[in-house]
């Protein structure tokens, strides 16, 4: 009997299914229902892709037109409808018949399709013109089904309830001939797909299916067994079977050569109404009263085998053919993945249907297994050498030794075609595997037996689907979702036997060593040395060696391994249509990798010169994964890979050379990071500059206290318009005027004002004027009027004169030693919180500057911004106390709400801060904190007054001992006693106020020039 593995792929419950179809390329099943709907299912993901309503009456037929992305439906409203199955758009509607439409068949090549109906007519349609091209008349009852002849698309057959099958020719209005023999109406008809038999099959209400020879017009066979009407029939396009479906709820599987009943399927979904298949696939779609099912019969792997010399033998149905790859190699260069054209030779028909073909290890014999029998042929002359009954057949590694499984309890071992022993396992044997040991599979384990003695070697708790042995001692055991690589120790087995111990139920524990487990679904495989070559379920050609998986190619369709020919350095594969392809895999590379895994480095080094240049990077990656990175660096030819390896090995010289060659910012950045980790600061600085890593350079220069580097960085960033880094560099260099100029140039006037208020208070008046002019230019005079300056409202700027005095003192300080390094932080951190304004106040000095505009301007009795003056609307004492806008009774074009939401409090909240402090840049104290004298009682420093200072102020300064002591206190970094007694605002308070005010003004005035990071 045929050993067909029948697997259900999809089961979908629904209303009554009247028609099914299978898409030729996509994993889709089409169902038309009695309720007027059409469903499209993906039988691989088991999900419904599309569902739409065609009509309110039954849709009795639906067909895919893949080349147009269409579905053609016929329904009981007598209409043919065409839909695009991607968009579900209705393409066209035809008023086709005058009664229910029963069937539709699509021409395989031309833009034609035919339809049959209960009006007893068959019509031919052209979808380019949307016209009926021909009407076929002759049946005297409902025409239930039409089907095109796959061998001659100009002819088709029809089945009718008038008990006949008619064969028609396109272009002829009368049938070519009529087949009669059924006792009741004929429901279905189908053609035999193979080329050797001119057969068709029909099913009828007389509960039988008949096989017809349409050349001789005779009935060849009648298939009886159904208990109700036969509604669907088909010849399977790939397997030697006939399928018949009946209203008794069963689908029967018949052998197409012996007409023997092989199997009966009953899925409990009531009556069978529809059946569909597609050429090149073993999938069958079935439609029932209560839903639809997709099943897969047998395996799609073709029956074929190749010996070590490149001779291929395969089976097409029962015909055996042979081809030789040597002829292909002589034609010229073969491209990877290119289809190979082979000249075939017919060896004749096989007496059994071949389900598997397999050469023995030396290639002299070929076994054909199927139908519960086996036949051994000579490979050259194709002569029958031996035969027998067998459910399975496997070869041993030793020539002339093989085993057959006759039943689940008996396995026979043969040598030189003579029975040598019988193995009767103590479990039900469900499968056997050949190789160095005989593998026997049960429902929950795999047992290995010795070919010679028949003794149990090892039992493993695993259920394999395939076992592959290498020529050495490696074995791969493949399951449904993973595979295991094991090493067989023949010496351990021999030692155990010599010890005289009794073999337990689990066998010899030391017989196998597990080398690896990999999660993958293997389709076909073979060993090449110690490399395991395989194809998997996601259509990849890979090989496994030493724990590493190398992908050779991504395949565009399911492919099956034939084998590897070392002299060609190529692996050969074939698809289910027996179309061979090949891919290059260097045997030298495989041997090198094998030697590395065996730690035979001396021999491996000798092979290196033979490895092609294009394969060396692949070898280098293999060495890298094995942990031999130094060797990988020497072997690799890919510059990116060499750079990665050099980075890993911290080879600074090679890394620098490759970075100079590639000159990529990313590469330089990686070099800089590596140099920093290796304390190579000079190389890190060069790399950062080449990578334009300005933030990294800023970090490097600040932590090392490098003013020259900061100067260069500031200039470079200014050229690159990296304003935020430029500002930080200038600030750290204590070039405050340049910081202020940068803020002004970049139109950050609000920030410039606040910066000047903190560090350069003498410039606040000029900056406020610029700020006002900027606002007025933007059409915001109200906001401009709300800004106050020290020259106009001195009472809003407490201690502004002291701040200017502190600014002058700061400018006189000696900062010749430059920046402080990060290591000086501990020594100078106490000086970071000094309040210079408070120190100037406690010193008791008179301001050495000329009378400032603050002192020259009388203060207001109650200082208010123009906004508050407008909001509170007080009665002014004089016109000088209010702005012109207030006299005019307007708010500069803005109502009270605008002032409240956008302007109110900007002047008062921004400038009327309590006791602002003057902060000196931190590095100004580096000298005092680093100098040993800073920890002693220092002598008063020599300070030269600026030229613009008045002589009187200079004399006062020099003659005042108290002032000298106070200044010395300032420069020493120690707070004065008065400062310790009187609490002053913390240095961070003014910074917080500054940040808050910048946030307030930035939304209205600021522009993004790169300062936001500050």
TrEMBL record:
Subcellular location: Cytoplasmic vesicle, COPI-coated vesicle membrane; Golgi apparatus membrane
WD repeat ranges per the UniProt record: 10-51, 94-135, 136-170, 179-222, 223-264
Pfam families membership: B-prop_COPA_B_2nd, TPR_COPA_B, WD40
Chain positions covered by the region annotation Disordered: 841-1014
Biased segments, Acidic residues type: 946-967, 993-1014
Occurrences of domain COPA/B TPR (ranges): 592-772
Family matches, as InterPro entries: Beta-prop_COPA/B_2nd, Coatomer_complex_subunit, COPB2, TPR_COPA_B, WD40/YVTN_repeat-like_dom_sf, WD40_PAC1, WD40_repeat_dom_sf, WD40_rpt
A single cellular component GO annotation: COPI vesicle coat
Compositional bias of kind Low complexity: 974-987
Biased segments, Polar residues type: 867-877, 906-916
Gene Ontology terms, MF aspect: structural molecule activity
Family the UniProt entry places it in: Belongs to the WD repeat COPB2 family.
PANTHER family xref list: COATOMER, COATOMER SUBUNIT BETA
UniProt-recorded name of the protein: Beta'-coat protein
């Amino acid at each position: 009997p045929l050993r067909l593995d029948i697997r259900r792929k999809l089961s979908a419950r629904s209303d009554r299914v009247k028609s099914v179809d299978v898409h030729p390329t996509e994993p889709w099943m089409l169902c038309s229902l009695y309720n007027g709907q059409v469903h499209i299912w993906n039988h691989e993901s088991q999900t419904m892709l599309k569902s739409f309503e065609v009509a309110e009456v039954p849709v009795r037929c639906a067909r895919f037109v893949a080349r147009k992305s269409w579905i053609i439906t016929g329904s009981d409203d007598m209409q043919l409808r065409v839909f695009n199955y991607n968009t579900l758009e209705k393409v066209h509607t035809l008023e086709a018949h005058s009664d229910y439409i029963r069937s539709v068949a699509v021409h395989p090549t031309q833009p034609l399709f035919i339809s049959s109906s209960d009006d007893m007519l068959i019509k031919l349609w052209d979808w380019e013109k949307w016209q009926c091209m021909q009407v076929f008349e002759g049946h005297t009852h409902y025409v239930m089904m039409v089907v095109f002849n796959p061998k001659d698309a100009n002819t088709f057959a029809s089945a009718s309830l008038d008990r006949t099958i008619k064969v028609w020719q396109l272009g002829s209005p009368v049938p070519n001939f009529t087949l009669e023999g059924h006792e009741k109406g004929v429901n279905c008809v189908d053609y035999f797909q193979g080329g050797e038999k001119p057969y068709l099959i029909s099913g009828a209400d007389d509960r039988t299916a008949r096989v017809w020879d349409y050349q001789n017009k005779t009935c060849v066979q009648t298939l009886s067994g159904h208990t109700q009407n036969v509604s669907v029939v088909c010849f399977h396009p790939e397997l030697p079977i006939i399928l018949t479906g009946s209203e008794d709820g069963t689908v029967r599987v018949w052998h197409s050569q012996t007409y023997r009943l092989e199997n009966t399927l009953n899925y409990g979904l009531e009556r069978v109404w529809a059946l569909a298949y597609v050429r090149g696939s073993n999938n069958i779609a079935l439609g029932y009263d209560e839903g639809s099912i997709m099943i897969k019969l047998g395996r799609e792997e073709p029956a074929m085998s190749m010996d070590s010399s490149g001779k291929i033998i395969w089976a097409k149905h029962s015909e055996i053919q042979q081809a030789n790859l040597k002829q292909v190699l002589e034609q010229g260069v073969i491209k990877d993945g290119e289809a190979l054209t082979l000249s075939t030779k017919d060896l004749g028909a096989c007496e059994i249907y071949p389900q598997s073909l397999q050469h023995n290890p030396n290639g002299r014999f070929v076994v054909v297994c199927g139908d519960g029998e086996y036949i051994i042929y000579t490979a050259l002359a194709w002569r029958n050498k031996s035969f027998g009954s067998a459910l399975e057949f496997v070869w041993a590694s030793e020539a002339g030794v093989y085993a057959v499984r006759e039943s689940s309890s008996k396995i026979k071992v043969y040598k030189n075609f003579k029975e040598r022993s019988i193995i009767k396992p103590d479990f039900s044997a469900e499968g056997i595997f050949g190789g160095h040991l005989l593998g026997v599979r049960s429902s929950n384990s795999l047992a290995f037996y010795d070919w010679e003695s028949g003794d149990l070697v090892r039992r493993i708790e695993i259920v394999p689907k395939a076992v592959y042995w290498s020529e050495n001692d490696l074995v791969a055991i493949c399951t449904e979702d993973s595979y295991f690589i094991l090493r067989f120790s023949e010496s351990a087995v021999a030692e155990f036997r010599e010890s005289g111990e009794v073999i337990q139920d689990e066998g010899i524990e030391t017989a196998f060593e597990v080398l690896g487990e990999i999660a993958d679904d293997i389709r076909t495989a073979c060993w090449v040395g110690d490399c395991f070559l395989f194809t998997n379920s996601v259509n990849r050609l890979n090989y496994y060696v030493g724990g590493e998986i190398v992908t050779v190619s991504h395949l565009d369709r399911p492919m099956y391994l034939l084998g590897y020919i070392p002299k060609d350095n190529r692996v050969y594969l074939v698809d289910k249509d027996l179309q061979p392809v090949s891919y290059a895999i260097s045997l030298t590379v495989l041997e090198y990798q094998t030697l590395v895994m065996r730690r035979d480095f001396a021999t491996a080094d000798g092979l290196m010169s033979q490895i092609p240049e294009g394969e060396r990077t692949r070898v280098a990656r293999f060495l890298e994964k094995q942990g031999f990175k130094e060797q990988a660096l020497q072997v690799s030819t890919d510059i990116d890979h060499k750079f990665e390896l050099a980075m890993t090995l911290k080879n600074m010289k090679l890394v620098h050379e490759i970075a100079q060659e590639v000159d990529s910012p990313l590469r330089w950045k990686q070099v800089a990071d590596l140099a920093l980790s290796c304390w190579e600061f000079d190389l890190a600085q060069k790399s950062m500059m080449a990578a334009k890593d300005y933030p990294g350079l800023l970090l490097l220069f600040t932590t090392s206290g490098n003013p020259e580097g900061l100067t260069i960085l500031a200039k470079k960033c200014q050229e690159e318009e990296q304003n935020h880094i430029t500002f930080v560099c200038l600030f750290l260099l204590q070039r405050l005027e340049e910081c202020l100029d940068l803020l002004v140039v970049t139109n950050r006037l609000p920030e410039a004002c606040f910066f000047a208020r903190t560090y350069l208070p003498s410039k606040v008046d000029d900056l406020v004027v610029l700020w006002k002019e900027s606002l007025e230019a933007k059409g915001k005079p109200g906001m401009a009027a709300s800004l106050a300056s020290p020259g106009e409202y001195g009472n809003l700027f407490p201690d502004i004169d002291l701040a200017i005095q502190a600014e002058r003192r700061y400018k006189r300080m000696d900062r010749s030693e430059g920046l402080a390094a990060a290591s000086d932080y501990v020594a100078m951190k106490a000086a970071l919180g000094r309040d210079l304004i408070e120190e100037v106040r406690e010193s008791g000095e008179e301001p050495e500057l000329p009378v400032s505009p603050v002192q020259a301007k009388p203060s207001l009795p109650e200082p208010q911004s123009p906004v508050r003056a407008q909001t509170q609307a007080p009665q002014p004492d004089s016109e000088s106390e209010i702005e012109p806008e207030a006299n005019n009774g307007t708010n500069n074009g803005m109502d009270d709400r605008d002032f409240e939401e956008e302007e109110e409090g900007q002047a008062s909240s921004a400038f009327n801060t309590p006791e602002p402090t003057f902060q000196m840049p931190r590095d100004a104290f580096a000298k005092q904190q680093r100098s040993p004298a800073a920890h002693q009682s220092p002598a008063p420093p020599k300070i030269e007054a600026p030229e613009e200072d008045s002589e009187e102020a200079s004399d006062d300064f020099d003659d005042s001992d108290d002032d000298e002591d106070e200044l010395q206190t300032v420069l020493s970094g120690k707070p004065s006693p008065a400062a310790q007694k009187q609490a002053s605002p913390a240095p961070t308070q003014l910074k917080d106020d500054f940040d808050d005010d910048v946030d307030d003004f930035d939304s209205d005035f600021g522009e993004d020039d790169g300062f936001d990071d500050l």
